[in-house]
Specification:
about 10% helix, mainly beta, Adhesin domain-containing protein, single chain, elongated, disordered N terminus, about 375 residues
């Protein structure tokens, strides 16, 4: 028994030592700082990978760029070799700055941009960091590309274009104009006045917007307030707290609207839509649907109702007046339904067309 215990302890100690040797990493770093003249009419292009880009606006007519590079490896020589091969390419002309993270191939002078041709086992998110901190005029234009890293924007209000993969985008200020293309990340923004956002397999949280165009897939969307929203949604969970107008196409999504002011125009397929409140008494609602579940609270509204439906289920409150139902095709169960809700002489219109599905208008 003692001999067994001795060997067991010896094996345990050997395993611990081996693990420490395996996971021990040498860390080497390099810092680069550059400053150039730039006005509010200036433009920054920045392409990066494996690091965070932090943008700060200021009132000075110059741009300051700080680059912090970190490389880790079990062998210090390998870490130093890789660090030497990472050379950000900075080009500056009048009011235009271009920065690209580049790395040379091993034992060659050829530059492979964006790490696309570098051995993926040699460079990965775990052993390389290239972090940028940028100060530039508050109204300058920014064009960013980043993979496997976040983008953080503070105290800046210019025109933004971002292509981001496997990272989060944090915007703390009101952005006048934003074009965002994101995959596998989270977008959190205080306010985008005019925005065009393409989001796949991510999350989006926006407080306010005036005019927003969204193309989303496999994502979670929550918007507190937007005046006009165009939404192309596929397999999303969407919550819109307060919108003025909504247009778009929904497929295989779940959408809840807490409050809408005046207009809904949607094409839907296998989607669940819940509208809890419509503010304008003469609202305009136009929905084409297939195999969808639609529930709309119509309390306080007045409108003319028109529906052409194939199969499916239509539920109307008893307070509807002048209900007319005409069978257009008995074999296909196609019918046309007309009715009036609320005050007579209203200019509000509800039009719902499609096949199958469940449509419920309730008070």
């Amino acid at each position: 028994m003692k001999m067994f215990t001795y060997y067991k302890e010896l094996i345990t100690v050997t395993f611990v030592l081996t693990s420490l040797m395996t996971f021990s990493q040498e860390l080497v770093t390099n810092s680069i700082e550059k400053t150039f003249k730039m006005t509010n009419s200036g433009v920054l292009h920045l392409d990066n990978k494996y690091g965070t880009i932090t943008i700060n606006g200021w009132d000075e007519n110059r741009i300051a760029i700080s680059i912090d590079i970190k490389v880790s490896n079990r062998k210090k020589d390998n870490a130093l070799n890789l660090l030497d091969r990472i050379q950000p390419n900075i080009k500056a002309s009048r009011d235009f700055i271009s920065v690209t993270s580049e790395i040379s191939e091993r034992n060659t002078g050829f530059l492979s941009k964006y790490f696309n041709k570098v051995n993926p086992f040699e460079i990965d998110k775990g052993n390389v960091e290239i972090n940028y901190t940028v100060y530039l005029p508050k109204q300058a234009e920014i064009n960013l590309t980043n993979k496997f890293g976040d983008v953080i924007i503070d105290s800046w209000k210019g025109k933004l274009k971002v292509n981001l993969q496997h990272g989060d985008l944090w915007i703390n200020e009101t952005i006048t104009n934003a074009i965002v293309d994101m995959k596998f990340g989270k977008l959190k923004c205080n306010s985008i006045i005019y925005g065009n956002i393409n989001l796949k397999n991510g999350e989006m949280y926006v407080n306010t917007s005036k005019d927003l165009t969204l193309k989303t897939a496999g994502s979670i969307i929550k918007i507190a307030k937007v005046t006009s929203l165009e939404l192309q949604s596929s397999k999303d969970d969407v919550v819109l707290e307060h919108i003025g107008c909504l247009y778009g196409e929904l497929q295989f999504s779940n959408v809840q609207i807490d409050s809408v002011d005046r207009e809904i125009n949607l094409s839907m397929k296998v989607t669940e839509l819940r509208v809890l409140n419509i503010k304008d008494q003469d609202a305009q609602v136009d929905i084409n649907q297939e195999s969808s579940n639609i529930s709309v609270n119509i309390s306080g509204l007045s409108f003319q109702f028109n529906a052409q439906l194939e199969e499916g289920l239509l539920r109307l409150p008893k307070s509807f007046a002048n209900i007319e139902t005409n069978i257009l095709d008995k074999s296909k169960r196609i019918r046309h339904v007309k009715a009036i809700y609320g005050k007579s002489g209203t200019t509000g219109i509800f039009t719902i067309n499609g096949k199958k599905g469940i449509i419920t208008l309730k008070e």
